[in-house]
Request: fold
Amino acid sequence: MNTLVRFLIPVVMVCCAVQLSAQEDYQAKIQELEAQRELVVKQEKEALKDEITRIDGRLEAGEIGQEEAQGLKEAAAEKHALNINNRQAILDNEIALLERNKGDGPGAEDGASEKSERTIVLEYPDHEEDCEFFGIGCDHWHWDWEGHHPYDKRTYSDLVIAFGLSNADIEGTSLEDTPYKVAGSRFFEIGWNWRTRVFENSNWLRFHYGFLFQFNGLKPKGNQYFANTDGQTTLQEFEYPLRKSKYRMDNLVVPVHFEVGPSHKRVSENRIRYSLKNQFRFGFGGYAGINLGARQKLKYTKDGERVKDKLKGGYDASDFIYGLSTYIGAGGTLLYFKYDLNPIFQNTEVKQRFIALGLRLDI
Reply:
């Protein structure tokens, strides 16, 4: 439990800091959006000026006549005037949304952790081939210049924390009859997870992957402890009255899941984002990795003195870890289940496998 507390304290501090940064002052956001309204006019006027310069160049080169040049200039002026109206209307809607919801509206849930964005506006020349760059056409040049975030973000990431109850699936024994305490046997996981949508224009199926540190614990019932005899690790009676007996196995694994479920699609002038807030999620897959170590903690009284032993190694624990896992829930709070396919101890005659049920938080 002390190990769990030591891990949770910094995690909680990090989570609080993330939440505070996400609750940025919406008034500052509004001020930046209002500044963007002014920037829109400047950008469109400069773009119109460049377009008129190109038209004049074509006129001087004899490619077009005076009447056609005048018509092109009028069309360009009308286009950029409409661009100003449309782009400012989008910004006005964002400002109104922030003011109405005090920064907590739908527009804030994906962008709260990102900087207010300004985009580079690239005006397309009359001929598309004129703006190709190493074979890439102008229609691909849409990027957030200030924050360097892609227009369509396909991969997201989360801090993952999982905790709950663990036990062992023993061959020929039901879970009710296992020699381990239900409430005392616990697990804890912490790591990082990436999720990438599988399809180009749909987010209903996601691919999840990352890394996790696993800490799986078992507390034997009665006065028992784990001992290795003749190459086999089994539970045995301890010679002194035990106040505590706990076995822990630490792993580093790579989880891989496919996840299905709806999402909110947020589309603005500057970006496309998908949000899973309050949305149903179901994931299924597995994990594989390595065992980092196994240890046992014993507390007992010997000759009237309290003794605490920490025993490492020598338990014949499996080196390669692999298993199945699944989760279901809404948003970042999920019910989590996992089952190790590898035995806890390699050479025992009766195979035991970790099984766990708990809560998973995607932060």
About this structure: Confidence is low (pLDDT under 50) at residues 18-23, 107-147. The chain has four helices and 13 strands. The longest helix spans residues 66-101.
